[in-house]
Each structure stands twice: as C-alpha cells, then as structure tokens.
C-alpha cells in the first residue's frame, strides 16, 4: 500500500549529527523522528554485548520487527548508523551525513567517548563505512542515496532545505 508521507533514513557514523538533524527536520515537517539507538536501548533490541566497546550489538531482526509497522504507516525519519538490514521497499530516501575527520574527532571527544571508541568511529568515517553499507545494500534498487556534508551550521541548513523539499514534493506511488 502506498504511503501518504515518505520514510527517510538518516544514517552515518556516530557523531556526524544524525539526531541533531532529525530533530530539526521533525520540527519543520510532519515527519516523526525515530531515534533507533534509543529504541534499541530502551526496548532491549539486542542479544549480544560488545565487551571491548562496552555497548550492545543490535539484533537486526528485532529492530526490523520494531520498525516495520511504523514504516508501513509512513512519515518516519529513521535515525540510525546502520542501514543494510532495512528493506528498500520501506524507504523513500537515504541521507548519509558526513563529517571531516577533525570535526568528528572533536565531537566524539566532547562526548567523552573512550579513546578506542573515538578512534574506531573516526576510522569508520574515513573509510566511509556507512556510505558503502547503504550503497551496497540498495545498489540494485531505485532508492536515492544522498551523501551530504554536516560539519557546520550552514551545511545543516542546506541539508534541511534539500530534505524538506523532497518531503514536500513526495507523491505516493
Ligand atoms: P549523531 O546522532 O550522528 O551521533 P549528534 O546529532 O548527537 O550526532 O551530534 C553530535 C554533536 O555534533 C552534537 O554536539 C551536535 O551539537 C554537533 N553537531 C551536529 N551537527 C552539527 C552541525 N551541522 N554543525 C555543528 N555541530 C553539529
Ligand atoms: Mn544520535
Ligand atoms: Mn526489497
């Protein structure tokens, strides 16, 4: 069944600004912000724990099952670092936010992440892990993937305008 409002996945390395961006976008559109990492934590959508990084390893099936009914209704902003476990049929646009190494480093330090976790995330950004994950997951599909810089306030405003425009001009079908 066609959605009356689009589903937009906002992905990228931790610290690129997904949550900041989604909050601003949810405030200026009728889209609902789904902060998936928070859902994973609160609803315990994991079965494994990463001892080295001291964080949960989300369970793809559990997260998919939690998101599916929401995405079927449409109008969701999915805020998550991972994308490959989602079905392209549930999505209308994928936005991959990017940040420079020094920007990301500073943001993660300010978050008081342990050094190993800062390093791992900065490396993931350098190797464009999230972008490649989305490209590989959806390469055989028609789904648009927008890679947008997110280092500055100006970048965020530009990205907001582009995505607002997309949401406004979305027609079911
Ligand atoms: P994520 O959800 O991807 O982990 P956050 O939205 O929590 O990232 O942002 C991480 C930090 O970077 C926050 O302190 C936020 O204020 C800052 N930030 C995010 N986007 C921008 C931007 N475009 N310009 C400047 N600072 C930003
Ligand atoms: Mn976040
Ligand atoms: Mn599919």
UniProtKB/TrEMBL annotation:
Highest rank taxon of the organism: Eukaryota
Keywords on record: ATP-binding, Cytoplasm, Kinase, Nucleotide-binding, Nucleus, Ribosome biogenesis, rRNA processing, Transferase
Instruction: Please tell me where ATP binds in this chain.
Output: 15, 17-20, 111
- Any GO MF annotation of the entry: ATP hydrolysis activity
Broad class of enzyme this protein falls into = transferase
GO CC terms: cytoplasm; nucleus
Localization, per the record, is: Cytoplasm; Nucleus
Keyword S-adenosyl-L-methionine present in the record's keywords: the answer is: no
Q: Which reaction does it catalyse?
A: ATP + H2O = ADP + phosphate + H(+); AMP + ATP = 2 ADP
| InterPro entries per UniProt | Adenyl_kinase_AK6, P-loop_NTPase
Keyword Transport among UniProt keywords: no
Q: Where is this region: LID?
A: 110-120
Residues of the region (NMPbind) are 35-58
Q: Name one GO biological process term.
A: rRNA processing
> EC number(s) for this protein?
2.7.4.3
Protein task: Broad-specificity nucleoside monophosphate (NMP) kinase that catalyzes the reversible transfer of the terminal phosphate group between nucleoside triphosphates and monophosphates. Has also ATPase activity. Involved in the late cytoplasmic maturation steps of the 40S ribosomal particles, specifically 18S rRNA maturation. While NMP activity is not required for ribosome maturation, ATPase activity is. Associates transiently with small ribosomal subunit protein uS11. ATP hydrolysis breaks the interaction with uS11.
PANTHER family reported for this sequence? ADENYLATE KINASE ISOENZYME 6, POS9-ACTIVATING FACTOR FAP7-RELATED
Question: How does this protein assemble?
Answer: Interacts with small ribosomal subunit protein uS11. Not a structural component of 43S pre-ribosomes, but transiently interacts with them by binding to uS11.
Record-linked HAMAP family: Adenylate_kinase_AK6
Family from the record: Belongs to the adenylate kinase family. AK6 subfamily.
The protein's name: Adenylate kinase isoenzyme 6 homolog
Give the originating organism. Answer: Symbiodinium necroappetens
């Amino acid at each position: 069944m066609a959605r009356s409002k689009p589903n937009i996945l906002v992905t990228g390395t931790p610290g690129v600004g997904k949550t900041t961006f989604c909050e601003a976008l949810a405030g200026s559109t009728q889209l609902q912000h789904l902060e998936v990492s928070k859902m994973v934590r609160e609803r315990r959508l994991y079965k494994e724990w990463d001892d080295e990084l001291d964080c949960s390893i989300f369970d793809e099936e559990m997260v998919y099952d939690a998101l599916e009914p929401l995405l079927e209704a449409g109008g969701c902003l999915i805020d998550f670092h991972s994308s490959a476990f989602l079905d392209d049929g549930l999505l209308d646009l994928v936005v991959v936010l990017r940040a420079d190494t020094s920007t990301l480093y500073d943001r993660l330090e300010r978050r008081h992440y342990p050094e190993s976790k800062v390093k791992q995330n900065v490396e993931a950004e350098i190797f464009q892990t999230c972008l490649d994950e989305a490209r590989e997951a959806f390469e055989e599909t028609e789904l648009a993937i927008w890679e947008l810089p997110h280092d500055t306030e100006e970048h965020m405003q530009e990205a907001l305008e582009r995505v607002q425009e997309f949401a406004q001009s979305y027609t079911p079908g």
